[in-house]
Amino acid sequence: MRIGGLQKTSVIDYPGRLCCVVFTVGCNFRCPYCHNPELVSKSAPPLMDEKEFFSFLSVRKGFLDGVSITGGEPCLWQDLPDFCSRLKADGFCVKLDTNGSMPDMLFDLVKKRLVDYIAMDVKTDPARYTELAGPKVSSEEIVRSIDIIRGSGLDYEFRTTCARPFVDLKTVEIITDMIAGAPLYALQKFRPDRVLAPEFFKDIPQFDADELQKFKAVAEKKVGSCIIR
In 3D, which of 80, 83, 224 has the Cα closest to residue 157? Predict the structure, then answer.
């Protein structure tokens, strides 16, 4: 694993657990609102190697009870199952953040019970992913990942960054139809600072609190809980 960042303690990234957050390098998406632009390139310099990371964890056993793996896109790395397996062997619960573009890896992690909690970003209507994230994104893979997560038997959530022009009320309706029955759906307010392509949003007004509440009203009819972050 190429580790590009580490947040040593978090009380919000893993619901119900005190965790650290490890950021992997590299992403196969190019979302203009990406808030970790320094991690997008797979050739970005790593912050630490695995030996250093597990040394960090070893002195925090009994304090931390979870590890949240995010990115970038962690599922790009073929040694992700080994990494998760080691975390589980050391007694940590594992949360995975994913964009859902690699369902085969996701299925393998679920089948082997190497993760305990999955958070997937459903960025827009799958039919619009090429417009948002790049031409190599398969809408079928996004839908398949949603189905894998819903049928996993694990704790999970879906989330959407509410950024024009990729999200509107119709988009929220489409997404919540796909994830119907999910225990948690988070609508994330777009933050224009420190994003991959700030110029993209220069002349595009973004949603205010009232508009996000309208999204929430639509979504909460189809999921267990809908929150605005």
Answer: 224
Q: What is the pLDDT of residues 62-77, one digit of tens each?
A: 999 999 999 999 999 9
Beta-bridge partners for 223? none
Is 79:26 a contact under the CB 8 Å cutoff?
no
Domains and CATH numbers, the chain: 3-228 (3.20.20.70)
90: DSSP letter: T
Report in angstroms the alpha-carbon separations of 36 from 4, 33, 139, 157.
Answer: 10, 9, 23, 20
Percent of the chain topping pLDDT 70 = 100
Report phi then psi at 90, rounded to 5. -85, 0
Q: What is the DSSP string of 147-167?
A: HHHHTS-SEEEEEEEE-TTT-
Give the 3-state secondary structure of residue 183: coil
How far apart are alpha carbons 153 and 207 in whole angstroms?
34
